[in-house]
UniProtKB/TrEMBL annotation:
Domain of life where this protein originates: Bacteria
UniProt organism field: Effusibacillus dendaii
Record Pfam families: FAA_hydrolase
Entry GO MF terms: isomerase activity; metal ion binding
UniProt keywords, alphabetically: Metal-binding
Name under which the protein is recorded: Fumarylacetoacetase-like C-terminal domain-containing protein
UniProt cross-references to SUPFAM superfamilies, sorted A to Z: FAH
Lineage: Bacteria, Bacillati, Bacillota, Bacilli, Bacillales
């Protein structure tokens, strides 16, 4: 099932993408992530409306103002240097353990949103990432059990201001600027995705492909990541985990070829089965 969140006036509403269009549903993403009962009711609701022939209930996705597909994440946990070639292009050693850092909710944005370029940075970069969305409380779960705690997946862009990121030994400043965590367009349930470590992942800038890899190249796979994090902190429904980016980021280019993101640039993240997430960078007002 493909869920999306859209803006309706000052409210956020949830929809399900179907062959007939987007069906608005009476459950928020937060409710669906937190409640098995709501998930069952959602399936029944969608099936009844599709079979009921009420085509006037379905909306044209192109007319919707999409919000982040997970509009209120709890923890936003990110994994750094999780593709071997990306670690190599960054001139950093292959990590022995997952490198974890975080973003905050101010960084969350949706498909189609304009993302402001911070006035304090001149080196803004893109990072295509598979995002894990937790659906059950996970504490000290094994690698074998880990994916049972995942509700679904979405595409993400770990936008990064490199000059701020490496100003100190802590990466936080360059990772948590406003709008720097686009999520979407869809939250796709785990049963529809299948194996998360066999998905093509790509990034485009103004239509030019920059990253082209597969999640199979992760150093630490999705089950390992969920299990590892759960050993140290409890994961709750609605927590999201950005699992790292493949090679091809601007930072990995030779210095004379580094052209950082600028006003008007359009970045698209594309992951098999999860759709295309597009955002335009704009100068900060």
């Amino acid at each position: 099932m493909k869920l999306l969140t859209f803006r309706s006036g000052k409210e956020l509403k949830t929809g399900v993408k179907t062959d007939k269009g987007v069906l608005p549903v009476p459950y928020s993403v937060d409710e669906l992530l937190a409640s098995e009962d709501a998930r069952g009711k959602l399936t029944d609701f969608v099936n009844s409306k599709i079979s009921g022939g009420a085509d006037n209930l379905f909306l044209d996705e192109e007319t919707l103002d999409l919000a982040p597909c997970v509009p209120n994440p709890g923890k936003i946990i990110c994994v750094g240097l999780n593709y071997r070639k990306h670690a190599e292009e960054s001139n950093m050693p292959i990590p022995e353990y997952p490198i974890l850092f975080n973003k905050f909710n101010n960084s969350v944005s949706g498909h189609g949103d304009a993302v402001p370029l911070p006035h304090t940075s001149k080196q803004v970069d893109y990072e295509a990432e598979l995002v894990i969305v937790i659906g059950k409380t996970a504490k000290r779960v094994t690698k074998e059990e880990a994916l049972n705690y995942v509700y679904g997946y979405c595409a993400g862009n770990d936008l990064s201001a490199r000059d701020l990121q490496f100003r100190t030994n802590q990466w936080l400043l360059g990772k948590s600027c406003d709008g720097f965590c686009p999520l979407g367009p869809y939250l796709v349930t785990a049963d529809e995705v299948g194996n998360p470590n066999d998905l093509g992942i790509r990034a485009y800038v103004n239509g030019e492909i920059r990253q082209n890899s597969n999640t199979a190249d992760m150093i630490f796979h999705c089950d390992e990541i969920v299990s590892y994090i759960s050993e140290h902190m409890t994961l709750e429904p609605g927590d999201v985990i950005l699992t790292g980016t493949p090679s091809g980021v601007i930072m990995g280019y030779p210095k004379e070829q580094q052209v950082w993101l600028k006003d008007g640039d359009e970045v698209t993240i594309e992951i098999d089965k999860l759709g295309r997430l597009t955002n335009r960078l704009v100068n900060q007002a």
